[in-house]
Design a protein that fits this description.
The protein is 1% helix and 44% strand. By secondary structure, the chain is mainly β. It has a single domain, classed as Neuraminidase, CATH 2.120.10.30. The strands form six sheets. The chain has a four-stranded antiparallel sheet with strand order 1-24-23-22, with no helix packed on it. The longest helix has 4 residues.
C-alpha cells in the first residue's frame, strides 16, 4: 500500500490571509504509548522521500544508539520499518547514525555518523553531533562515503550534525560543532557550513566548503533545518545569555541576495525550532513553546523532555499570519495527549501535498518518554 491511499483527495488550496488552517485528521503511524522503556522506539528526526511515499527516520535501538531507517506508512494508519545504516557501522551497532535527509533526486541520503574511533554516546546523539561527520549513503543502504572527513581526535569536542540538501541546487548545509564551550550553552560553539555537492565517477564529494554563519549569531546555538528556492531555514538562540530560547531564521544563500539572516519569530522567551517549508515554499511549519514556561529545563537541559511543552505552528514564509494548529497540551481539546505534557519535535511537510505534515511527538510518562509519529491532514476554515 502507498501513502496515497489515505491522503485527502485534492491538494491544499492556498488560504486567504484571514483564513485559518486546522487539523482535519490525525493518523498515528508509530506509537509506543504504554510500552516499556527498553523497547526500541525513540525517533529523533524524520523527513519525506521526494516521491512522498516513505519517511526516513533515525531510530534509537535497545542499546541506546541511533540508526537510520525507512518508515513505510500503511493504508489507514500504522507503519513498518527497514534499517538502512547497518552496513555503515560494519555490523557494530554501537555508533550513532542520525539526522537523515534525502537528496532531492532520491538517489541517496545524508546523515550524521559517529566516528569509529570514538566511544562517546550522549554527546554524539543526533542533533548534538560531537564526534560525527556528514555521510552520504546510497538509497539501498549498501555504500557509504564520509563527506566532511573531519579528523577527530579521541573525545575531541567537535563534529557535524543536521545536514540539509537544497531542493533546487547542488548545495549542502550542516551545523558544525567545535571545541570550546560557550558560557551560555552546554553544547559549545555551532556554525553553519555550506558546500557544493557533486557526483564524480559515481562517487559523491564536497567542494568549496565555507562558513556562512552571520556575525550576529557567532555565539548562538544553531540548528540547520531546511532549504528551498535559495532560502535556508534554521533555528538559533539570538540572545546568547538565554540559549534555551531560540528563534526561526531565514537566510538568502542563493548568491543573489544580501546573505543576511531575518528573524521570523522574534521571541527570545520561546523555543522556536525545526522550521520546514511547504512544497511551494510560501509557508513554513515549526515547533514552538510560545505560551508555555521554558524558564527551567534542568542543568545543561537535562530535563527538557519532561519539562518542555510545545505545539505545531504555521506562518507565511515572510513571518506573517502565525497560527497555532495543534493543542496537544490543552486539556479537554480533541488533540489532548497527556497530563504530563507533550512536545512537538521534528516536523516534515509532504513534498507533493500541501495538506500533509508528519511530526514526532514526545510525551513524558511515569519513567520514560513516549514517542509517536503522527500524520496530520490540514483543512482550511474561512
Amino acid at each position: 500500500m502507498t501513502l496515497s491511499l489515505f491522503l485527502l483527495g485534492q491538494g491544499f488550496i492556498e488560504p486567504a490571509p484571514c483564513s485559518k488552517v486546522y487539523i482535519a485528521k490525525v493518523i498515528v503511524l508509530l506509537d509506543d504509548a504504554g510500552q516499556r522503556r527498553n523497547l526500541p522506539l525513540s525517533i529523533n528526526s524524520l523527513v519525506w522521500h521526494p516521491d512522498g511515499k516513505t519517511l526516513l527516520v533515525d531510530f534509537k535501538s535497545v542499546n541506546g544508539y541511533y540508526c537510520v531507517a525507512q518508515l513505510f506508512p500503511m493504508g489507514g494508519g500504522g507503519s513498518r520499518l527497514k534499517y538502512i545504516t547497518e552496513e555503515r557501522v560494519r555490523g557494530d551497532s554501537r555508533f550513532h547514525n542520525g539526522n537523515p535527509r534525502w537528496l532531492p533526486n532520491g538517489e541517496g541520503f545524508l546523515f550524521s555518523g559517529q566516528d569509529y574511533d570514538l566511544n562517546e554516546q550522549a554527546s554524539s546523539e543526533p542533533g548534538y553531533g560531537f564526534g560525527c561527520n556528514i555521510y552520504f549513503g546510497d538509497k539501498a543502504g549498501k555504500s557509504f562515503v564520509n563527506l566532511t572527513d573531519m579528523r577527530l581526535a579521541k573525545r575531541e569536542l567537535a563534529g557535524c550534525a543536521m545536514p540539509v540538501a537544497a531542493a533546487e541546487e547542488n548545495m549542502l548545509f550542516w551545523t558544525e560543532c567545535r571545541q570550546g564551550r560557550q558560557p551560555s550553552s552546554p553544547w559549545g560553539q555551532r556554525t553553519i557550513k555550506q558546500a557544493s555537492f557533486k557526483m564524480e565517477n559515481g562517487s559523491p564529494k564536497l567542494e568549496n566548503i565555507r562558513d556562512i554563519t552571520p556575525d550576529a549569531l557567532r555565539k548562538a546555538f544553531i540548528e540547520t533545518s531546511d532549504c528551498k528556492l535559495g532560502q535556508l531555514l534554521y533555528s538559533a538562540s539570538a540572545d546568547e545569555s538565554q540559549w534555551y530560547g531560540m528563534d526561526v531564521f531565514v537566510q538568502d544563500v542563493s548568491g543573489k541576495g544580501k546573505n543576511e539572516p531575518r528573524n521570523l519569530t522574534n521571541d527570545a522567551t520561546a523555543l522556536d525550532r525545526f522550521p520546514v517549508f511547504s512544497p511551494n515554499a510560501k509557508k513554513l511549519a515549526w515547533s514552538s513553546t510560545r505560551g508555555f514556561d521554558t524558564s527551567y529545563i534542568g542543568v545543561d537541559s537535562s530535563r527538557w523532555q519532561s519539562e518542555l511543552r510545545s505545539e505545531l505552528w504555521i506562518m507565511e514564509a515572510d513571518g506573517r499570519d502565525r497560527q497555532r494548529i495543534t493543542y496537544f497540551n490543552q486539556k479537554g481539546h480533541e488533540h489532548y495527549m497527556s497530563p504530563n505534557g507533550a512536545y512537538v519535535y521534528m516536523v516534515a511537510w509532504h513534498p507533493k501535498y500541501d495538506n500533509v505534515i508528519a511530526l514526532v511527538l514526545r510525551k513524558p510518562e511515569q519513567d520514560y518518554v513516549s514517542t509517536s509519529v503522527l500524520l496530520l491532514e490540514l483543512g482550511i476554515r474561512k
